[in-house]
Amino acid sequence: MPGRNNSLLTRLVLRVSLVMIVSIALLSVIVYIQIDNTLTSMRDQTVEKQALTVAKHLHPGNGLNHVLLDMPDSLRQFYTGAGDDYQYAVLDDMGNILFSSPVAFTDSFPNDFQHIGNGKFTFTGPGGQKYVGVTLQSTVGGKRLYIQVAQTKDVSDVFLDEITSVFMGRLLWVGIPFYLVLVIVIVWTLQSGLEPLHKAAEDVGKLDIADLSLRIPEEDVPEEVLPLVQSVNSSFSRLQKSIEEQRELTENIAHELRTPLTILKTRIDTLGASAETQKLSYDVDAMIKQVNQMLDVTRLEYADTLEKKDVDLAEVLSQCCQDFFPLFIKAHRELRVSGIDKPAVITGNKDLIYRAICNLLDNALEYSPSKTPVEAALAGHTITIADYGKKIPEDRRQVIFQRFQKDRSPSAAKSGAGLGLSIVSQTMALHGGYADLAETDENKNVFRMVFKEN
Prior knowledge:
Blueprint: H1 8-56, E1 58-60, E2 67-69, H2 73-82, E3 86-92, E4 97-100, E5 120-124, E6 130-140, E7 143-152, H3 153-206, H4 226-269, H5 275-301, E8 309-312, H6 313-330, E9 335-338, E10 345-348, H7 350-367, E11 374-379, E12 382-387, H8 420-430, E13 434-438, E14 445-450
Parallel strand pairs: 9-11
Antiparallel strand pairs: 1-2, 3-4, 3-7, 5-6, 6-7, 8-10, 11-12, 12-14, 13-14
Helix pairs in contact: 1-3, 4-5, 5-8, 6-7, 7-8
């Protein structure tokens, strides 16, 4: 699909990043909850400790209450300066207030001393602030007393926010570099781990039908990648065997057919000239042509396996024309050849080029009118075969180079399966060139084979 990201490395990094982000978020929530629970416990312990401190300074006395609160000055100053943040009160078992801090919301303190439980309590002060406190029972001089201490919840909340802010800040300062280092390590590890896979991909790219013996080395391949490499090697082995069998079968069939057909034609030619022998000879020629084209198609299908070397186009064109001269003489036709006095060397397969030229000469001989010449010429690295037959229409100039395209008109020759020009086109494509029908003002068809220069 277009736009789809198929990079395994990118996907793994994104997934690791997502896991890291979720992990950091969950860790932050867990730490925040733990800090809150810890501070709540510390706040409760602080309140209890304050109550114990107040109780510690209660002593029997001779006054009206028979109880004396002997607080040190530092503690008194603390409660004086604390305002309504920290409060305390000392009550007797009748609920009478014996002592209290300068500011104490005693009306909001619990007064049911029969069911104090663990002594913890909460309330909302006049300003809307939340308070937490504790009630502690004590006995002084045989008299039962209740010490109640409270403090604002905001004190611990501010402390919690401060700790959370410091923690998150440090987490970012430490976490981000740690995350970046981790990503770098992950990327490096993955790249190193995927290197054998990239190497295997490069080896696959080197596999060529021209050398079916090549295989991907299986040494030093990770266990996770080894099955893939083995499957590719196994598939290529099967492909090699299949290609070789198909090529051998087709070539054997073509050769086995061509030999008896050639013998049959020779025997027909010895029977003497008659309408029947001419018809038989024509049919055998058509069959030989079909067999040759079948062999050409097979060679082109596996052309990458054929050897390529320096080929002189002048030499190949000259050989083709020499081989076709007897056919032109028999048909009382003229074959004009030019441009073969200078060599024109390209890299390719001589047999394929020879067969391509033969197909053009055969077409020119068969599809152009009798008593008209055919011109074969070499100019630079371009071979042209021109005939003075019926000019091919503009809309058919490209179609005719496709397979099974032939002239279907009643006057056209009936031999062949429309493979000749497609063989020429495929041959040129394999040699980095092209075949076409040149534009000309004259009443003729000029077929070109344009080769790529070395």
